[in-house]
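RECORD TYPE: inverse folding
INPUT: structure tokens
STRUCTURE:
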């Protein structure tokens, strides 16, 4: 990938830094359902998504919980924090679609942070965005009914997929929302009875506007 192509994805970085990224970065295209990062692993490369989508999960022995998505032009703030502090990862990152990535080596990242102010601005903006998203998710977990959380999740999926027809399984939704399949199935049936969604095998159709 050339510097000109990089600028279309990350136009806010200095040209000299883009030259460094072109020299040291690793480009990869990964199929859906590929793990970029496992909990407990060390972060050697920081992912920057050029196309596609990656979801970041918090995992426990019993359940997983969706934290946020990494979309085009974004990176993973949790991976960044683990890399800078030389800690093991506390999250898992998994591609949802075919995803084109630029992997930035952590040893070079340390040097770039000292030399290029735009890296700090990029990470601060990303940190602020993720913080607000996580605060919102915590509020939903504490104060929202599962029906409301599920509807918001479906609308978010519709935005990401740019379609009201969502190829989602009940188990997948339960995993993302930190619930269990039986609860999700019951709530989806209620939403269907209320005329808000329709269901076919492995497909949920949103019938109401957001």
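DESIGNED SEQUENCE:
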């Amino acid at each position: 990938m050339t510097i000109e192509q990089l600028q279309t994805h990350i136009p806010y970085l200095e040209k000299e830094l883009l030259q460094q990224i072109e020299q040291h970065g690793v480009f990869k295209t990964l199929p859906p359902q590929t793990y970029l990062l496992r909990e407990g692993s060390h972060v050697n490369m920081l992912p920057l998504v050029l196309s596609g989508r990656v979801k970041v999960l918090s995992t426990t022995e019993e359940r997983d919980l969706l934290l946020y998505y990494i979309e085009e032009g974004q990176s993973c703030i949790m991976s960044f924090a683990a890399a800078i502090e030389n800690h093991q990862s506390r999250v898992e990152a998994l591609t949802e679609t075919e995803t084109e990535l630029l992997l930035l080596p952590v040893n070079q990242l340390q040097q770039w942070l000292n030399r290029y102010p735009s890296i700090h601005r990029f990470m601060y903006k990303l940190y602020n965005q993720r913080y607000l998203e996580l605060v919102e998710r915590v509020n939903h977990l504490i104060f929202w009914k599962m029906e409301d959380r599920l509807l918001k999740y479906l609308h978010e999926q519709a935005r990401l997929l740019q379609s009201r027809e969502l190829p989602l399984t009940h188990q997948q939704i339960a995993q993302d929302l930190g619930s269990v399949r039986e609860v999700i199935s019951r709530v989806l049936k209620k939403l269907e009875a209320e005329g808000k969604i329709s269901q076919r095998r492995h497909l949920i159709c949103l019938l109401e506007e957001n």
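NOTES: The longest helix spans residues 117-143.
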